[in-house]
């Protein structure tokens, strides 16, 4: 398992110097003084999240519960109310966006021999950051974002999601091409994803391109096929060794970016909260899925298959009987696990997307079943990266595939249901792919009848802080997008 040590010096610098980063971006008399590698580390850490509290509200409560990986008992009504959806927006624009825009400008002006590769890597990271934001909110500040210090733009416009996607795809294509011919990067171990390995950044760039391409299948299938073809031909992830993730350190008293925000969230909740959803549990148990005993446990950590039970989304009982996310690898019920990996894109996801591209357009040789099986296999094998016995044997995987064989007439359904299981923990990706594909078929909680007309939300609403500080541009964004509501459909969400 890849293990990258986050140096104590870096932790001290970024754990206590938020004020310094504010100065970098707003003080016109003070030039950037950080080395690009140091600033890139900061950006990557904050891409994972600046606070477990933020992760609790936008990922765990809203998204993981929304797509029914989890049931947070008394929090279910949060899903259908326009509140607490501000965390992702405010956290990311205040940390990663302003700093990656600053870093990009610094590298563009640099004459260092490593600047070309560093800039290409930085831009791929930038696409990851903005793709997550636009997939949550729709139209967002993009072309003018983070330029308060650089260009004096204090009230950035909201770009249309279609324009954002076009630019992100072009950026990925250009960055991957640059890395194919450039010299080495200076980032080295400061790069917490791939330690400056250009070949892995090329695969990640193409894999992100494939993700963005598949988002567009319902709104512009011609462009989706074109970009998926480019991505696959350019070379995407080939194994679990290529996964894009952050490996954290175990700093128990750190609520900031140096510990895993997901496991910190699970650890901070009472044993009667954060339950595995019955929808998710039943899907796995009905198929005798060995992941039940890896992803789930009783409140005291027993992972025995027969002891696992999910909690219905309409059951508000704060009892102890139903399963939690496995406390041995995620923390909870008094067990502290802060150093688990946090995944941004996995090889399993890539194989499922290739399988769908093969089904839709005959890409990758048209062998849908082979890529589907590779996706299921990778989705089970990569769980061993959590450690603590979270491994599934070759025989278990073979048995699962034999008991649940691929059915060609149900290809899209099976591929995207497996994608849903494989992205457990990454609520934003699960949510986005569910909206795009329509799978699995989910039913809203009863409380939605009175709050959203019985519909599952489709996006986050803009923060009230934006309505206060940037009202004209927020109003224009709401108008051009068709409203600023939980049920407003963003550009690619036409399923």
List keywords for this structure.
8 strands; 495 residues; two-stranded antiparallel ribbon; mainly alpha; 52% helix; 4% strand; disordered N terminus; globular; 22 helices
Can you tell me about this structure?
It is a single chain. This protein is mostly helical and 495 residues long. Helices cover 52% and strands 4% of the residues. It is built from 22 helices and eight strands. Helix 4 (52-66) crosses helix 11 (261-268).
Count of DSSP strands = 8
Please trace the helix and strand order, writing H or E for each element. HHHHEHHEHEHHHEHEHHEEHEHHHHHHHH
| Strand-residue proportion | under 5%
What overall geometry do the principal axes of the alpha carbons give?
A: globular
Using only C-alpha atoms, the radius of gyration works out to: 22 Å
Distinct helical segment count? 22
What is the typical, i.e. mean, pLDDT?
A: 92
Write the layout of secondary structure elements.
Layout lengths: L7 H9 L1 H9 L9 H13 L3 H15 L3 E2 L15 H22 L6 H23 L2 E2 L6 H4 L6 E2 L1 H21 L16 H18 L5 H14 L9 E4 L13 H8 L6 E2 L1 H9 L5 H4 E2 L26 E2 L1 H4 L10 E5 L1 H15 L6 H14 L12 H10 L7 H12 L4 H11 L10 H4 L12 H6 L1 H11 L14
Antiparallel strand pairs: 1-5, 2-3, 4-8, 6-7
What's this, in brief?
This protein has 495 residues and is mainly α. The chain has 22 helices and eight strands.
């Amino acid at each position: 398992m890849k293990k990258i040590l986050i140096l104590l010096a870096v932790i001290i610098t970024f754990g206590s110097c938020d004020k310094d980063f504010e100065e970098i971006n707003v003080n016109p008399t003070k030039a950037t003084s950080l080395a690009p590698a140091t600033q890139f580390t900061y950006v990557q850490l904050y891409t994972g999240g600046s606070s477990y509290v933020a992760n609790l509200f936008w990922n765990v409560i809203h998204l993981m519960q929304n797509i029914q990986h989890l049931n947070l008992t008394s929090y279910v009504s949060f899903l259908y109310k326009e509140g607490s959806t501000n965390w992702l927006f405010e956290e990311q624009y205040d940390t990663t966006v302003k700093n990656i825009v600053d870093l990009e400008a610094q590298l563009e002006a640099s004459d260092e021999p490593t600047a070309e590769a560093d800039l290409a890597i930085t831009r791929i990271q930038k696409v990851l950051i903005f793709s997550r934001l636009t997939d949550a909110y729709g139209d967002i500040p993009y072309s003018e974002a983070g330029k308060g210090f650089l260009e004096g733009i204090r009230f950035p416009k909201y770009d249309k999601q279609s324009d954002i996607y076009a630019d992100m795809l072009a950026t990925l294509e250009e960055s991957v091409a640059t890395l194919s011919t450039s010299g080495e990067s200076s980032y080295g171990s400061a790069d917490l994803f791939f330690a400056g390995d250009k070949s892995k950044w090329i695969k990640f760039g193409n894999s992100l391109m494939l993700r963005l391409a598949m988002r567009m299948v319902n709104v512009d299938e011609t462009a989706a096929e074109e970009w998926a073809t480019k991505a696959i031909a350019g070379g995407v992830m080939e194994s679990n060794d290529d996964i894009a993730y952050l490996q954290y350190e175990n700093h128990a008293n750190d609520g900031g970016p140096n510990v895993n925000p997901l496991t910190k969230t699970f650890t901070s909740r009472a044993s009667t909260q954060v339950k595995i959803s019955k929808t998710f549990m039943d899907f796995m148990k009905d198929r005798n899925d060995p992941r039940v005993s890896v992803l789930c446990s009783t409140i005291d950590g027993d992972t025995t298959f027969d002891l696992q039970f999910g909690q219905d989304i309409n059951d508000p009982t704060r009892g102890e009987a139903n399963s939690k996310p496995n406390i041995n690898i995620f923390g909870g019920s008094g067990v502290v696990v802060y150093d688990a990996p946090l995944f941004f894109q996995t090889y399993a996801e890539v194989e499922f997307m290739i399988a769908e591209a093969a089904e839709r357009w005959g890409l990758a040789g048209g062998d849908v079943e082979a890529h589907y099986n590779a996706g299921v296999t990778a989705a089970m094998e990569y769980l061993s990266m959590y450690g603590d016995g979270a491994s599934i044997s070759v025989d278990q995987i073979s048995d699962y595939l034999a008991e649940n064989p691929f059915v060609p007439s149900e290809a899209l359904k099976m591929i995207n249901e497996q994608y849903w299981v494989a992205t457990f923990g990454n609520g934003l990706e699960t949510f986005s792919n569910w909206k795009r594909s329509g799978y699995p078929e989910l039913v809203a909680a009863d409380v939605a009848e009175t709050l959203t007309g019985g519909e599952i939300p489709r996006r986050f609403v803009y923060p009230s802080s934006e309505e206060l500080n940037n009202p004209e541009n927020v109003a224009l964004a709401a108008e051009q997008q068709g409203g600023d509501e939980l049920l407003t459909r963003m550009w690619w969400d036409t399923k």
